[in-house]
């Protein structure tokens, strides 16, 4: 698939099926992600793969994070909400957490490091599309949760920029993506 087709046909798939990308495809996808631009060549992005049975363990982490967040708010956990958290990682055969590691550099502020990890994430999504896989960029409360960060081996100051759900596109969802119009989003300056 050529680059423009991959870029313009990328779309999100909330539910993905087996198979996940194999080792070779995963290497291609993550290498594309790592090739994203970054200010200062700090290479702030890290990629943490959760797949197979690891997803169940990650579901336990999400459920525990939910319970802890409830306790901190002085709320009783809702068993249905907890079950939803536990089931989230099963929406795809693989998840890649894209992490922006904390760093101190006056010339490259935190938002630019995070922008670099966002660029890496988009590269990841487009590379997956180009190889025929489906993906979806998710975050939510889990991405900001200290318990989740610790469980993934991250430092408290690291940012989970994306939880990219990755897998094969279900047969019944292989419809052409809706055409996205540029209308109204671009202009020339200083104008006519
Ligand atoms: C930073 C970021 C975080 C996102 N987090 C979520 C999320 O937690 N849950 C969700 O349903 N969509 C989330 N999205 C949106 C989807 O990834 C997706 O882009 C959106 O639903 C539009 O669909 P499309 O990608 O097919 O255009 C997020 C997107 C971005 C850029």
Notes on the structure:
The chain has 192 residues and is of the alpha+beta class. Helix content is 41%, strand content 15%. It has a 4-stranded antiparallel beta sheet. Helix 1 crosses helix 5. The longest helix is centred in the middle third of the chain and has 21 residues, at 110-130. The model has no long low-confidence stretch (mean pLDDT 94). It binds flavin mononucleotide. Flavin mononucleotide is lined by residues 11-12, 136-140.
Portion in strands: 5-15%
What is the total tally of β strands? 4
What's the shape?
A: globular
Spatial strand arrangement across the major sheet: 1-2-4-3
Bound compounds: flavin mononucleotide
- Category from helices, strands and their pairing: alpha+beta
Mean pLDDT: 94
Distance between the termini: 38 Å
Uncertain segments are none
* H/E element order: HHEHHEHEHHE
**SS element count, helices:** 7
The level of helicity is: 40-55%
**Biggest sheet record:** 4 strands, antiparallel
């Amino acid at each position: 698939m050529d680059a423009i087709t991959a870029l313009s046909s990328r779309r999100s798939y909330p539910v993905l099926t087996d198979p996940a990308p194999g080792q070779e495809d995963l290497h291609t996808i993550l290498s594309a992600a790592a090739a994203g631009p970054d200010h200062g060549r700090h290479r702030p992005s890290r990629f943490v793969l959760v797949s197979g049975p690891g997803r169940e363990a990650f579901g336990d982490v999400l459920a525990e994070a939910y319970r802890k967040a409830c306790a901190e708010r002085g709320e009783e956990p809702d068993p249905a909400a907890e079950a939803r958290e536990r089931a989230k990682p099963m929406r795809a055969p693989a998840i890649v957490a894209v992490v922006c590691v904390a760093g101190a550099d006056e010339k490259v502020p935190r938002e630019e490091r995070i922008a670099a990890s966002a660029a890496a994430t988009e590269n990841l999504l487009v590379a997956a599309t180009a190889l025929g896989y489906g993906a979806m960029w998710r975050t939510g409360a889990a991405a900001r949760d200290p318990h989740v960060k610790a469980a993934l081996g991250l430092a408290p100051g690291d940012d989970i920029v994306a939880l990219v759900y990755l897998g094969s596109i279900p047969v019944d969802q292989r419809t052409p993506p809706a055409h996205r119009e540029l209308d109204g989003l671009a202009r020339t300056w200083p104008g006519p």
